[in-house]
Write a structure and sequence with these properties.
This protein is an alpha+beta fold and 455 residues long. It has helices spanning 10-24, 52-58, 85-89, 95-102, 128-138, 146-159, 164-187, 194-207, 268-286, 294-312, 319-324, 352-355, 393-396, 399-404, 411-415, 447-454, and strands at 4-5, 8-9, 29-32, 38-39, 41-45, 66-70, 73-78, 106-109, 211-212, 217-219, 239-244, 246-247, 256-261, 382-385, 388-390, 422-424, 427-432, 435-438.
Length: 455
């Protein structure tokens, strides 16, 4: 892996990150990169992607490695290469040469790791094989308590805001994702299936030597929030929702969504709902600034959606009251967005520790329980803003919701909007001292702009 990236000395950046960790955390730290799982038989493996915590401090994407961080220094533990490795995978640099590239203080065989675990903190890995290795080496449980919890808190403090290198990578990821969306929008009128548009969009990402930062959502069933099926035909009158992001070689993510009409023209009802979602999107972004509570950004989006639905006659009543009773959540059940960085939902492997300010707990309210971020915004944070409107049968036909909201939902009026199954508009937003910077400024969101793109 290259250490110099576009004239940025990555080794120095990683060193600074490790030094900052040492200022926050006094114990040794062990971080594992992980192991790629196999598919059906051992040699058929899924693509490997190292743990984001490992990547943040070590900067390379190789499996079955462990780093020890202590006093700002990095010690690397590396497995012995199998005799056949060079045959199948090519020659690798010697452990010593690789250690020099990444600025390691020392390099040891992985078999020596057990002698360097005293008082070490760690973070539990997601893959079972590596987690078992952690348990065996450390000879203890890994729980969010004691020094492991303190390590998690220290890493959250570091990763909540992005340094210059991370922002450079995220801008690259957003730029490529923008190109993918533009191609998807332009090619839709001549495509027959969701799968074709998915292929067009993902080929742009792959062509830039990047990967998808999550499983792409490219669907005419926009009411299925995380729809990963691509077999449906594209028909006149359908809306196509595409939630597609790119991930750079260094692991940084983008997360962008657009919704457009297969025919090239929004119907009147589709345009009406689209404008409501867009109004929420634009207002929320305009109010992003340091010290602003993200939950208030969410509430603002909910209120604008409620106001728009009242104006259309779908909801009845005072918009503020409707939001207080979560009536809007029938159509917008999720939060306004989340943290973004090395993970598309950054640091969510730590639960709500990263997303929620200390002392805050996730609400059990229908309109708030899926809010992934509840902190005051800080300069250097990157968040998503992604309001939406969905007609989810499981919500709209739920007997309890039907009873609770029977007086505030005009069900007959709603039937007139049957051609609006799901709309989401999402952009990646950097919080700056001056407000918000959209990382995908060249991707249109206005309905007329999208129609013009489709020709």
């Amino acid at each position: 892996m290259q250490i110099l990236t576009e004239n940025i000395d990555l080794a120095s950046i990683l060193k600074k990150r490790r030094q900052k960790l040492a200022e926050l955390f006094e114990y040794p730290v062990l971080l594992w990169s992980g192991i790629a799982p196999s598919r059906n038989f051992p040699a058929n493996r899924y693509p490997f992607r190292a743990s984001s915590h490992f990547l943040y401090f070590a900067g390379f994407n190789l499996e079955n490695r462990v780093v020890q961080l202590e006093n700002g220094d990095l010690t690397l533990f590396i497995p012995e290469a199998s005799p056949d490795s060079a045959l199948w995978h090519g020659e690798s640099p010697s452990p010593q040469a690789f250690g020099r590239q990444i600025g390691a203080k020392a390099v040891y065989p992985l078999t020596e790791l057990a002698h360097h675990t005293a008082n070490a903190a760690t973070i539990a890995m997601q893959d079972v094989s590596t987690y078992q290795q952690q348990l065996e080496v450390l000879e203890r449980q890994i729980l969010p308590e004691a020094i492991d919890l303190e390590l998690m808190k220290a890493i959250v403090r570091l990763r909540l805001t992005q340094d210059d290198f991370a922002l450079q990578e995220m801008r690259k990821a957003a730029k490529v994702a923008t190109k993918a969306h533009l191609q998807g929008i332009k090619k839709t009128k001549n495509a027959k299936t969701e799968a074709e548009i998915r292929g067009i969009m993902e080929s742009v990402i792959i062509g830039h030597n990047m990967t998808c930062s999550y499983n792409s959502i490219v669907t005419v069933q926009g009411e299925v929030l995380h729809n990963e099926n691509y077999h449906h035909s594209l028909k006149m009158g359908d809306l196509l929702l595409a939630d597609v992001g790119a991930e750079t070689e260094m692991g940084y993510a983008s997360d962008i969504t657009r919704t457009w009409p297969v025919s090239g023209k929004f119907t009147t009802t589709q345009r009406d709902i689209y404008h409501i979602v867009l109004a929420a999107h634009d207002a929320c972004i305009a109010n992003v600034a340091p010290s602003v509570e993200y939950e208030e950004i969410h509430r603002m989006g909910c209120l604008i959606l409620a106001e728009g639905l009242v104006d259309l006659g779908i909801l009845r009543g005072n918009p503020e009251t409707l939001v207080k009773i979560d009536a809007h959540a029938l159509f917008f059940p999720h939060g306004i967005g989340h943290l973004l960085g090395l993970d598309v939902h950054d640091m969510e492997d730590l639960g709500d520790l990263a997303g929620y300010e200390a002392g805050r707990e996730r609400s059990d309210r229908f309109g708030l329980k899926y809010l992934r971020l509840n902190r005051p915004l800080r300069s250097g944070m990157v968040v998503t803003i992604e309001p939406g409107f969905y007609q989810v049968p499981a919500l709209l036909n739920h007997v309890n919701f039907r009873e609770k909201y029977k007086k505030v939902v005009n069900w007959e009026k709603l039937e007139q909007f049957a051609d609006v199954r799901g709309i989401r508009i999402e952009d990646d937003i950097l919080v700056t001292d001056k407000g918000a910077e959209i990382l995908s400024p060249n991707l249109p969101s206005q309905a007329t702009e999208i129609e013009n793109l489709m020709g």
